[in-house]
Amino acid sequence: MDLIKRDESATSITPPLPEAGGYVVVVVIGLIFASAMVFVTKILKKTTGEDNSKTEMFITANRSVGRGLTASAVISSWLWSTAMLGSSLVGYAYGVSGPFWFAAGCSPMIVFFSLLGISCKLKIPEAHTLLEIVRIRYGTVAHLVFMFLCLVNNLFAVANMLLGASAAITALTGMHVIAATFLLPIGVVVYTFVGGIKATFLTDYIHTFTILIILCFFTAKAFTVPEIGSIGNLYDLVTAASARTPISGNHHGTYMTMTSKSGIFFGIIHVTTNFGLVIMDTGFFVKAFAASPRAVVPGYVIGGITYFAIPWALGTLMSSVAWGLQDQPIWPTYPRAMSSQEVSSGLVLPYAAIAIAGKGGAIAVLLITFMAVTSTLSAQIIAVSSIISFDIYRCYVNKNATDRDVIRWSHYGVIIFAIIAAGFSTMLHYVGVDLSWTLYMLGVVTCPGIFPTVFTILWRQQSKPAAIIAPLLGMATGISVWLGSASALYGNVSIKSTGELLPCMYGCLASTFSPLPYSIIITLFKPQNFDWNDFLTEKLAFGDSSDSPPTSSIVDEIADTEKEPTSRSDPRWLPYMRRWTTIAAIWSAATFLGHFVLWPLPMYAAKYTFSKTFYSAWLVISIIWLWGTLFVAGFYPLIDGRNQILSIIKSLRKGGRAKEGQGGRKSEGEISGTSSIPESVVASVSIPFQEK
Question: Can you tell me the mean pLDDT for 351-364?
């Protein structure tokens, strides 16, 4: 990535924080959070009857999480350390187009998942993982193929997070990069091991709220630095810097334009990659299954649209700061420019934070990096543990597995995947792979399953051979195009050539779109014409009413006032779910057209260079949007679930659970499938942050 002329003799700065500080954050704070989540889990069990020794609670939180917490968890699921480090990186590399394309490559996919999520709720409400759906429809071979695709997706996603986070922590504290890689998952393993998906939702909420507070702090702190002072002055600094060292491929070489060839190439890579990451990430399906039916679409739509501001605002601001201050004495690498190794390792954000806030900025980036990687890592770990317990152990080892057996293997899965992911990330580090390489090539291995998976859920005609062969052929096609392009364009196949922009873009496009014709052509020979009702023939949920605690009087009161259908036995159920499906489809199309077509492409074609006024409006709107995201992620769950929070507080004051109501709670399987008991009965006690 040849961005500007550099002195390559130095590739790092003296860490602004002590090495001990890195260990304190990674280990001590991680264990404190883990202990806090264990404590919260015990309180919820005491006051609401939640029992994480039960499979349905551990994996799906009784399918009862509300809108506010779902939206917060969706934001958190994409609040990777990569999103913050990477958006600043591409902003520095491609100008204002980079952070925008980074954001536009995420939001439409998240909103689109609302359609997949509500479709799963409608067609197979007892499912725990995507792979259960594949197995029921296509059988064992397809199940194993998709299991391989999902595990590859999760493994590369975690490696991408750990590579960026460990590099940033090492640069800030001097902590050994391998120590950071292996120690980061420790706290995550502890609270996920004990609390399951509920602990993931709660830690997501706390971490996301904290991260957004720090990001909003950066948006204010940047303009208190005398060298910047105002948005207008920042504009002058950046335009002067890009005039001295033009950005290759940008219109007139300026930072201040959406007309960037490399920027739009990155946008293509990012949108295809993220479609794969969302659709093939079983963690997204687990969270969709955990949400109550009326929370899936609002949660994913609100979460996806508000998430847009994070990479857009942060990447634009901090890359502007980097361009504007890199020739100033307050810049950490002054008098030299950042090396290509520092840029590709994602150190633009840490250096910009140090420039505007000194050691405080370094501490802030250390905290948000730690919280982002642990929060997203927890979702990946619970997703893989669900695959190990449900799709490997329950299907092929012990088909008569009890609740206790599945929970035990879920615990094994948490530990096994954390160790494997850390080891895989270490291997990538030692062969010379960094954040930039994984950011660009990720789609080559994550995208082949996109269309076969979507067709599995939405198209009844896709045949079994198509579901098995299309993604494998797609992966082979993508890898061949990726490596062939690297060889043809750069004369060799190496870490450097395979990490370049064009080979990765061609490979991503081939991996994404080649399975589409493969699937359709193979299906034409013998369409399946699958009956969606066949999904309901197999009981997937665990639960026995005799084991379940009785509901509280508070729950009964809420159930009495509930007006929306929450089970398949209600005649309003199908029209209600289909209405949400239509809403999800409309929002999915509108978000993609708005964020990826109608907004950026006319600006690209216009070859417009931002004026000072336009840049000021661009940055101010992104910052306001970011503060709105803070409200949605931090305060909406509290407002949405205030009644449930108060009920738990009252219960604690009384020394235990709320007054027991009449009769026991139905099993989780009945609630999600055929029971006439309103699901909100479970919803209101299964999570403190819940709708009225």
Answer: 92
Please write the tens of the pLDDT for every residue from 247-265. Answer: 988 999 999 999 999 999 9
Amino acid in position 110? I
| Residue 72, CB-side half-sphere exposure with 13 Å CA sphere | 33
What pLDDT score was predicted for residue 404?
Answer: 78
Classify each residue of 3-37 as buried b or exposed e, where b means 16 or more C-beta atoms within 10 Å of its C-beta. Answer: bbebeeeeeebebbbeeebbbebbeebbeebbeeb
Q: Which two tokens stand for residue 477?
A: 């096609």
DSSP string, 371-410: HHHHHHHHHHHHHHHHIIIIIIIIIII-TT--HHHHHHHH
- Residues 44, 52: Cα–Cα separation, whole Å: 10
How far from the centroid of its chain's Cα atoms is residue 290's Cα?
16
With both helix axes pointing from N to C terminus, report the angle between 67-78 and 348-386 in degrees, rounded to the nearest 10: 120
At 111-163, the pLDDT tens digits run 988 888 888 878 777 776 788 888 889 999 999 999 999 999 989 888 888 88
Residue 692, classed as helix, strand or coil, is coil
Determine what percent of the chain falls in helix, strand and coil, rounding each to the nearest 5. 75, 0, 25
User: What is the full DSSP assignment across 252-264?
Assistant: GG-SSBS-BHHHH
Q: Cα dihedral sign for 447, 449, 454, 457?
A: negative
**Coil, strand or helix at 1:** coil
pLDDT value at residue 673: 39
Question: What's the full length of the chain, in residues?
Answer: 692
Judged against a pLDDT cut of 50, whether residue 297 lies above it is answered with yes
Q: How far apart are CA 685 and CA 554, in angstroms?
A: 9
